Amino acid sequence: AVRGDVVEEVVLEDDDVRVVVSGAGGVLSSIVLKGFRDEEGRPLELVRAFSTPPLRMASAGPWNSEPYLVERGEEGVKLRWSDGAGAWVQKRVGLGRGRFGVEVDVRAGGAAGRDGVVISSTGEATGKKGGYFERLSAVVRVNGDLERIDAGKVKGGARFSGLVEFAGVEDQYFLTVLLPDGGVGEVAVVREKGGAAVVAGGGGGAVRGTLYAGPKAHDVLVGYGRGLDETLSFGIFGLLSVGFLVALKWIYSWVGNWGVAIIVLTAALRVVLFPLTHKSTVAMRRLQKVQPKMKAIQDRYKERAKKDPQARARMNQEVMALYKQEGVNPMGGCLPLLLQLPILWALYSLFAHAIELRQAPFALWITDLAQKDPTYILPILMTVSMFVQQKLAPQAADPAQRRLFLMMPLIFGFMFMSFPAGLVLYWLVNNLLTIAQQVATERLLREAPAKG
Fold first, then answer.
1. Which residues are registered as beta bridge partners of 91?
2. Which residues are within 8 A (CB) of 45 and not within 5 positions of it... i.e. 6 or more apart?
């Protein structure tokens, strides 16, 4: 057996990461991201965040706890172990060229290389602050498709074969994944005590590549390629979310506060959408003016329309003729709402997953725009602003519709209580600007009444 003086810890670090390689088992016992903090304000530890330490880089066996011969050189740390009976493991760990990259080269033979090489472990989330969007998953991109397996739901395991572009673990904001240099044709996600393990089946028990251990920062992930940016889950309106993120980062570079950046972006969106929303408000006012005439038509056909399809068709024809005569589009008031839906969803995804907004303070009690408002003041203000907005908007003729519209602020307020404070801030500012626009539109209509 190969033995040597045991070096307990070797530290590799640059401006972004601090990696601790332990000679006891030849494992990565720590990966600290220098620019990030956990919920207790300590430097963010990825190994302990994702698993019961350490990150061992070899299949299960005694070689993960026995001492290794450790050599430190210009290329990093080399580790060797052998039991003298055919089982052996050799490892090399160094800092990668890209940000948050760790170069790994693991080769094993005999019993140690039988099941491939474990590149990362994931355990149950412990000691972490719970969140509405929090996720702990194994993640594999194989044959161009991204696969996610919830760490808490791994039972019989899962296997993926083909072109493996990366494999590892993730949570809401961070990744620890291997980008192999080649030779990995199969990845297995298997159940282990406390969670799951991701195993890369390298040819002849060898795996070499870059271990990305860092944040889900869009520009950094895109720089690594291989579809790594797909782990940043912005959803069906992902392109819109990325566009908003680019705009927010540009605004932030000028104002220095993410909350202020959200307010500026909201105002910019209102300016862009002003012509459509103004036209919509005018259309709704015109529709409100013709409601008495429309009701008169409906009352005239009220009894016959219930029983006679032809009478109901004539009633609809007269209503449409009235719309045409008065120059009213009954769907004109819906367009801004339809435009708001993809914007709202894109921002919802952005504020939930963008690392830039994690632990980003705004002002006063808002210390994290990615978490819900702990005082619920923002959702309450947003609900009040929606009530004011409803009062200023043209009222529906149907009493049932009016009651439904009055319930909407309460429904939205209840929903937004658990949403990120950044999203609630956006919706509050959007409502306030909408109120200002409604007042301005009313003034314009009084000064230049619509011809009709």
1. 79, 106
2. 30, 31, 32, 38
